[in-house]
Batch of 2 targets.
Target 1
Amino acid sequence: MIRLEYRNAQGDVLACAEHAQEALLCIDGVYAEGDMIRVTCDECTHLVARMDAALEAGEVYLPEGVMTWRVPFGEHRLAYSPVAFEGNRHIVSVRKMTEKELACRRNLACNPSDLRGDTDFYPHCTANVETRNESVFAARNVIDGCRHNISHGEWPYQSWGIGAREDAWCLLDFGREVDVDEMALTLRADFPHDAYWVSGHVVLSDGAEIAYDLQKTGDRQFISLGKHTVRWMRLERMQKSDDPSAFPALIEWEVFGAEKA
């Protein structure tokens, strides 16, 4: 059984819906700061969640069968479509993934529902720096499924910005072990405002480290990983180009593979 609850900052349940396979919740009212959606599921950890009509649906993994999703508010909304979370009616849908979906090779990183800060659901992205601590430069932006990259700042050009730090890293946690074989990086390409990285390393939780080269392009750049079973991956030691700009940034990080065999 999947249960959706819309709760206010005090924890009061204002609306709910439940279903054995797919729960559909319609919320009447304007969101207030501190509102949240709580998802619970019995004997089911892999779900497809769509948390707003203006968000894409995406896979989420709930290791404890619970997903606590805080409605983005204030400055946090700048990384989302301007119509997201607005108005006096909202919809949320959550369904179980099928066995066929779970068996497929796919982008295991994509999670439009990811939030900044601690979460109880995955995939989840964190970093040691986010430019000026602004939501439009947060690590979670690189797994939101949006690859528009010819500008920078507010949606749809949200990215991971490193504030010119040379020791910047970004970590992607899948929440469980998965089999991976390839990744793709989409750089922000607001040239000449942007610089770009010419190389970097990805560290895998199984102990492997893979060096890669990058080009000055806005296209996806695919990097072979070989066969690895990992819980997490970390981008680090990224070398900036000699462009006069101090602002390389990452738009999207895709990781291809399947559930652990």
Target 2
Amino acid sequence: MLKFICYPKCTTCQKARKWLDEKGAEYEMRDIKAENPTVEELEEWYALSGLPLKSFFNTSGLLYKSMALKEKLPTMSEKEMLSLLAADGMLVKRPLLIGDGFVLTGFREKEWEEKVSLL
């Protein structure tokens, strides 16, 4: 079963959820603000995704901007970045869709279509 990690008030997350429902996808939903991803989960998803760790950050979020992370991230270690992401779910790019063998960050319909249609 898919894991759908989102912030329910986020319009992109709402769009992604509606899309999953229309496709009849089975998923377990988790509110990222109520239940932050752990460092262990983030390490696993990062390894599985094949993406740069920076792509797990919500770069358009207010918290990201207020913490001036655009300037700080390039000098941070992987461990520091993972700890930061685990400290506050609002720093994590969402929605996250985690399935067997893949992790998708953000909602790009074409990318999701490719993965979900294989299930």
